[in-house]
Amino acid sequence: MNFGFDEDQEALREAAEKLLAAESPPAFVREALEDPDAWRPLWSTIVDLGWTSLAVPERLGGLGLGVVDLVALAEVTGRWVLPAPWMSAAGLAGPVLAATGAGEGALAGIAEGAVSTLAAEGDVRWDGRTLRGTARRVPDAVRADVLVVLAAGPDGRVVGVVPAHDVRIEPTPAADPNRPLADVHLDVVVPVVAADPEPGLDVARTVLAAELVGVADRILEVTVEHARERVQFDRPIGAFQAVKHRLADLFVAVERARTLTYDAAMVLDDPASSTGRRREVASLAKAAASEAAILAAKSGVQLHGAIAITWEHDLHLFARRARQGASALGDHLFHYRRAAESFLGREG
Amino acid sequence: MDITETPAQREVRERYTAWLDDFLPDDYLARYHEHRLDWAFRRAHQRDAFEAGWLVPQWEPGLGGQGLDHLETLTIRLESARRAAPKLPNIQGVGVVAPGLREHGTPEQIDRYLVPLLRGDEWWALGMSEPGAGSDFGSIRTRAVRHGDTWVVNGQKIWTTQADQSRYATLYCRTDPAAPKHRGITCFIADLTAPGVTIRRIRSSEDSLESFCEVFFDDVELRADAVLGAVDDGWNVAMSSLDHERDMIWIMNWVEIERGLAHVRSSMLEHRRDDLLVDLGRRLADAEAIRMTGYRAVTNELRGERSPEFLILKLFGSESLQQVWELAIQAAGPGAVTDPGLLLEDFDALAATLYGGTSEVQRNIIGERALGLPKG
Ligand SMILES: Cc1cc2nc3c(=O)[nH]c(=O)nc-3n(C[C@H](O)[C@H](O)[C@H](O)COP(=O)(O)OP(=O)(O)OC[C@H]3O[C@@H](n4cnc5c(N)ncnc54)[C@H](O)[C@@H]3O)c2cc1C
Hints:
The complex is a heterodimer of chains A (348) and B (376). Chain A has helices at 7-23, 26-32, 40-48, 67-79, 86-100, 104-112, 198-229, 241-269, 275-304, 315-327, 332-343, and strands at residues 116-119, 121-122, 125-126, 130-139, 146-153, 156-163, 168-172, 181-189, 192-194, 231-232, 235-236. Chain A is of the alpha+beta class and 348 residues long. In chain A, α7 (198-229) packs antiparallel against α10. The two termini of chain A are 31 Å apart. With 376 residues, chain B is α+β, with helices and mostly antiparallel strands. Classes of the chains: A alpha+beta (348), B alpha+beta (376). At the A-B interface, α7, β11, α8, α9 and α11 of A face α7, α8 and α11 of B. Flavin-adenine dinucleotide (FAD) binds at residues 125-129, 134-135, 159-161, 351, 354-355, 358, 360-361, 364 of chain B.
């Protein structure tokens, strides 16, 4: 039992923190909200650095690392609300491809920097020949080359890999325009594999949880800084217990989520973990991280005061990602319930 | 990062469970509520654990341990909790007084007091709180005045758990009234059977497992060698004592959380209560997060890194414990108010957010020590 990142992971985190502080500071993230192509140069950089190949198997040109490595990096991308589609490709599509064996070419493509994403929600069906229906709220679909689509088939669930030019992509509003959402309309003949996507989704949920922990952590950090500096009634507001206690509670929520996320990553990387255990820890991590991120966004705004609801302030950048991530792949209500069902021996 | 047990972890855990299985009667869990009230049984467990080196596993043989490292020790403490091993009858003795004695005691004091404490032959109480000094420990007024080679103590302590059953107490007195609040305090080892000590039990609002007392000191004489730590340095002795207490309490809380969750589970299997599933999930997350945060903190400790997440465990554990038993009551339905066992759990859970520093005080500690916010 060891909860520490190893040297390579620490080095990756440090390098990522440095890179994003320089290349993706809040001012850039804010600009990117209104410039749909701002992410492209940054994407080339992170692909060159190997971020998209972390968890791709070595025989497909990746680094063959695990969920812990993805989590180590995702936490940092959350801290800087990275506006490039790393999460969609390496965090969501990649793990589902790897766990289901749905498309080795697509997985190799992720390592090389093809923008890929996961279409997990909606009512897509497979009739034995055609994938048909609408996938909802697909992140980064407008930027994607390839979509990994989950669908219901006549004999259970299937996973298909669909080139983006074969589908109709209808952008929708999104809480976080830096991770644009779209409805994707499909009517396409493709090969699919029959597979339960849940094990792959549990990895995706855990990586997403890590990003949310990073977002919450950063909000806590800037809010603590603000509470130490902002003076009202002749003292720093952080000296008021109403403020201090709210921040202490947020710290508990963030550490709770962080512990559960690391725990889930380790359990998912351990080949000896049972299916039930994997499902339970992934749900606990996603639920706790979703809650922590939303709590952070709310407390962050409240404790900054009016400045926090301006376009110029950074808080909305974090709050947007918190809101969108918290409801993706199951919100905290879904996942607490799922973990409880599992505890009661109902695999519903 | 690696979730699997190290070979050493597994080896000590297996040795420990073999020992525990051997000690416990077969119907232990089935008759947990009776065993819980069986003091002779709990005393025997402490004595055997002391002899076998499972009482304070990180200490050396002869002092109830076997020289385990931090990680192995936490593994044993959590395994003991998971198995609901008998609670030490005088838990603050082993959990709080003993490490304080080793840290601050003279060789003579350690020699005289430590082993009888660890064997459970002599019980200890914590004499900190007073009627006018609860959270604000620095305002204690019990006085100790030096006359040559003796100190004379006058004053009153309150909420002193098990004072009526204890031979000794760590007694905090004001020794320099002119010094700033935190300075002029000294910690003494007080013999509670000495002339001038009067102990009165306080009746608690429900029958509780541990007694709760007031202790009065009227011209009680203590010898100079009763000082624990340095004269006027009692604040530091108290602060390290509170650290040990927090470390003891979160695992005590975790035991009760696990028991509470098992209770909820059996109620919810009996009566389907889908309205409680989300809440149950939240409490499962708490239980997992508390245990694993303990391991995270130990990993950091082993790497020599600062470990601020450790500071959350008392607050998080006690608040969660209360919520788990609240859920147990909801899961039991309206009949819960006719179930004395459940009512007692609920009552016990209320105290958890008070003793060892209230939740409000914990939030101050987290805000100031972990987050670096200014004092109020
Ligand atoms: C079961 C049990 C066993 C105990 N055993 C012992 C023992 O063995 N030895 C011993 O010495 N003591 C013991 N205590 C006492 C315990 O340490 C005190 O109850 C505790 O420190 C709180 O003090 P108080 O009860 O006087 O409450 P107070 O300090 O009066 O607090 C009342 C309320 O005010 C709040 N409050 C106080 N100060 C602040 C602040 N600065 N900021 C915000 N809120 C504040 C508190 O959080 C609480 O909600 C025990 C208590 C219990 C319940």
